[in-house]
Write a structure and sequence with these properties.
Belongs to the short-chain dehydrogenases/reductases (SDR) family. This is 3-hydroxy acid dehydrogenase/malonic semialdehyde reductase. Its EC number is 1.1.1.-, 1.1.1.381. InterPro entries: KR_dom, NAD(P)-bd_dom_sf, Sc_DH/Rdtase_CS, SDR_fam. Helix 5 links the parallel strand 5 and strand 6. Helix 1 packs across helix 8 and helix 4 runs parallel beside helix 5. 42% of the residues lie in helices and 15% in strands. By secondary structure, the chain is an alpha/beta fold. It is globular. It contains eight helices and seven strands; from the N terminus they run βαβαβαβαβαβαααβ. The protein binds NADPH dihydro-nicotinamide-adenine-dinucleotide phosphate and 2-hydroxyethylsulfonic acid. The site of NADPH dihydro-nicotinamide-adenine-dinucleotide phosphate (NDP) has 28 residues, from helix 1, helix 4 and helix 6. The site of NADPH dihydro-nicotinamide-adenine-dinucleotide phosphate has 28 residues, from helix 1, helix 4 and helix 6.
Length: 250
């Protein structure tokens, strides 16, 4: 029987690339996102495998509960949950950042991921198999100016992933945190409130990671033998590395 993968944030970027790659490998898909039209188009495109579309907002616990309760019988035994829905909003320093933006990032990147995980984990534990693949970020480990709340949400994802592994010890359920660096998706367009020029400037003159690069990593970690747990994968494009510490000289 085909394996089942639930992908949040399947309407764009990494999530969409994961949907295409796993469909090509014969997995059946639960595609999640808020943009219903995009979900429908993607489902049509991937019609070679069973697809269930779930249109909801991961920030709303009641919607997540409804989605899980409404999973069709043949999609209930979830093998892999890719907690990918997420976003950054703004790049202002903390002292001028928009508090509302911080709330949206916390609600999506942290609370949405918690809701999905908590509701799908019991089934995985009962079946003694399953895999939670979280989408962290290099921003969860490495600080940068303006990364404030976004980076902190991804640090949460990293430590939650580690702690999940402890709780799941002996259950056979796996946990992986994938931590990408600069990758060209709709990420920067969202971060800059739809300003495409500003978003394009982020990638200008670089060869960033692509969504397919990340989907291939998700597929690789999911297809390791059952006794192998890839704890974390940090990945950057070759064009990206670190700067020296900033020193304020008087
Ligand atoms: P995109 O903006 O291309 O995709 C983000 C996805 O998240 C969309 O499908 C969007 O769907 C979904 N999403 C956002 N908010 C919600 C919500 N409240 N409820 C449900 N779905 C939501 O960005 P990426 O593919 O780049 O981002 C995917 C993940 O990767 C994010 O967690 C991001 O933080 C992380 N990441 C991105 C990096 C990059 O440089 N691109 C690097 C490191 C990590 P919809 O709007 O239809 O709901
Ligand atoms: C996305 C990568 O460096 O823009 O998580 O924060 S970065």
């Amino acid at each position: 029987m085909a394996k089942t993968i639930v992908i949040t944030g399947a309407t764009s970027g990494f999530g969409r690339a994961c949907a295409e790659l796993f469909a090509g490998a014969g997995w059946q898909l639960v595609l999640c996102g808020r943009r219903e039209e995009r979900l429908g188009q993607l489902a049509q495109q991937l019609s070679g495998v069973p697809v269930h579309c779930a249109c909801f907002d991961v920030r709303q616990l009641a919607e997540v509960e409804k989605m899980v309760a409404a999973l069709p019988e043949n999609f209930r035994a979830v093998d892999v949950l890719v907690n990918n829905a997420g976003l950054a909003l703004g790049l202002n320093p903390a002292q001028t950042a928009d508090l509302g933006d911080w709330e949206v990032m916390v609600d999506t990147n942290i609370k949405g991921l918690l809701y999905m995980t908590r509701l799908l984990l019991p089934g995985m534990v009962a079946r003694k198999r399953g895999h939670i693949v979280n989408t962290g970020s290099i921003a969860g480990t490495w600080p940068y100016p303006g990364g404030n709340a976004y980076g902190a949400t991804k640090a949460f994802v990293g430590q939650f992933s580690n702690n999940l592994r402890c709780d799941l010890h002996g259950t056979g359920v796996r946990v992986t945190n994938i931590e990408p660096g600069l990758a060209e998706t709709e990420f920067s367009v969202v971060r800059f409130g739809g300003d495409k020029d500003k978003a394009d400037a982020v990638y200008a003159g670089t060869e960033p990671l692509t969504a397919v690069d990340i989907a291939e990593i998700v597929h690789w970690v999911a297809c390791r033998p059952a006794h192998v747990n890839i704890n974390r994968v940090e990945v950057m494009p070759v064009c990206q590395s670190w700067n020296p510490f900033a020193i304020d000289r008087q």
